[in-house]
Amino acid sequence: MEATSIERPASQRHRSVACSECRQHKLKCDAHQDYSKPCSRCRRRSLECKILGDYKRIKKPTKAELVREIERIRKEVNPTTASDVRPLEHDSTLQGQTNHGSKSTTPYNIAAALSEIPYSPASSVSTEYQHNLQQDAILDLQGQSRTIDGVTIASEKINDCFNIFATHYSPQVPIVEQPMLLDATFEKSPLLFWTIVTLGSRKYSQDPTVFHQLSHRMATLAFQSLKSRQSPIQTVQALVLLCAWPLPVKHLLNDKIHTLAGACMQLALQIGLHVSGVGQDFARERVQAQVSEQNYRALLWRYCTIVCQSASIGDGLPPSMIVEAFNPDWVDQNTMSPDFNQLALRTKLHHIQSSAISKVVPYIMAPADDASLEGIIEIFDSQARMLQSQLQDDIDMLTMYCVRLHICVSRFMVRQPVSMTGLIELYGIAINLIEKYSSMDAASDLALYSTFYLSRALGLAAFVVLKLHHSPQHLVIDRERGERCYFSVIRLCRRRSLDTPDLDSRLATILTELWSSSMVFRGPDGIFDALNVRIRSRLTMSVFFDCLWWWRQEFRGQPDPFVSQPSAVRQTAADSLTQLVDPFMVFSDGLDYDENYFGMYGTYHATLPYS
């Protein structure tokens, strides 16, 4: 190991210095423990570990820049074939999406493209730069063909699916290491391997049959992995991903997302992810304590709770809250990662949303003080708005709109007189959510890769627009703008659909038929009341499922199940649901956030357990 003798100022002599490789990738480095030996990361990867006092990080070229550089080289070497250059990525949906807010570093197959370029002394690209391109392009994505339940997927298709996953899916739920080692991933956990391939093949245009073949086998593989109890960390990773992007089903009753979410949460608890440290209290053997492992376990637990609880919220089910046991002092505070900042922001928004749901349940399920309900809604909505200055990108903004929608949609539950000002504000939130989603889809194909939570919030926003469009005319809203947004949701649902029919394609049909209906929201007495919500036990998704019942009545000929429901039944349902939700809610009423509020999660600087 090479090391330069650096004379540091007195204020920095005790400050640990990371090696060049770790500084380049902004990773935690333990070289300061013994500067005469390489750090643990360099040892694992067989890298040269250097401590350079004047080292500066080099910005790596983007994928688009690498592709343009290769095309330029080809033009110089052989101008006659320049017009035949095609994009290197097999999946056409990836073209032009290199700026999708992704933090992934997985490039296209640049190494293969460079190998096709004949050598020419006139080439203006330095040998070192070309070597770096080839070295970065390999990324250990040289796997082999794999077989699952009699179905064999070729290695090049697996590589493509891993690239698509790294580009579009991993940045939204970053719990899998980049770059990914194909063969190592398969050896550690076939479930995680096939989950990544399945998600990457959702919109894989080169071979649409890959997803069809794998999606029917993933549920069985998931339950087999839970039964075997091998590689629990990787199993939790896979289940979190399957809950974020569930497999397509034709009917809600066939959806296994909540079964997998429950199993995921319980498995995470069994291996002690909810407790700071490396899970020694939950292990049968001595576990080596590493800060990077501690940080990663905290990160995985946080995304596990956010994704699994959001799946419940998106289906109108009460999220199960778990008491955590994190020590605020167990992590180094020397650095601050942008990933941690984003995770802390998402946690705050999720915390506000879950707290709001727990507080409004007693009010929406039984007769109560409407003024108190309005006050609770305004308190939590204002807390979400306070975080606007911390939003880092479009996905954060979209998430905030979703949280505010779930909070403010409870205004439909307020009994007469209804606050028109609150409904106008709710309408604006729904419009902003749809427009933000549409603009992100136009820029980066969000509809193809968005999570279950975001897509379900999009449907809820459309039903809010539908109800308010059928509201009294004295409700002053921009109806033309709302109509455009409503039709955008129909288009986005069809674009997102993976199978015919699946829930997305059926939702597009339902939205289309309800918009053209002249009977929707018409009660047994012949009076139209779009502001009334008959279903109240589905929490913030009650409006969503109430509209589905209006569709069933008119277009499926089902009788109105709510026309003769006595108030005593609703009161019993209110009591039972309140008992279910309240014991799990351990949040305080007032959430006064500051920069240290999420210090209990430490400074995120995790090395994922794949390298």
From TrEMBL:
Outline the extent of the Zn(2)-C6 fungal-type domain: 18-51
- Where does the UniProt annotation locate this protein? Nucleus
| Superkingdom, taxonomy of origin | Eukaryota
**Pfam short name (any one):** Fungal_trans
Matching entries from Gene3D superfamilies are given as: Zn(2)-C6 fungal-type DNA-binding domain
Acyltransferase among keywords:
no
The GO molecular function terms of this record are: DNA-binding transcription factor activity, RNA polymerase II-specific; transcription cis-regulatory region binding; zinc ion binding
GO CC field: nucleus
Q: Which UniProt keywords apply?
A: DNA-binding, Metal-binding, Nucleus, Transcription, Transcription regulation
Per the annotation, which location comes first and is thus the protein's main one?
nucleus
A biological process (GO) of this protein is: DNA-templated transcription
InterPro entries with a match to the protein in the record: prtT, XnlR_reg_dom, Zn2-C6_fun-type_DNA-bd_sf, Zn2Cys6_DnaBD
Which PANTHER family does the UniProt record give? Answer: FINGER DOMAIN PROTEIN, PUTATIVE-RELATED (PTHR31845), REGULATORY PROTEIN LEU3 (PTHR31845:SF21)
The entry's protein name is Zn(2)-C6 fungal-type domain-containing protein
Look up and give the organism this protein is from.
Exophiala xenobiotica
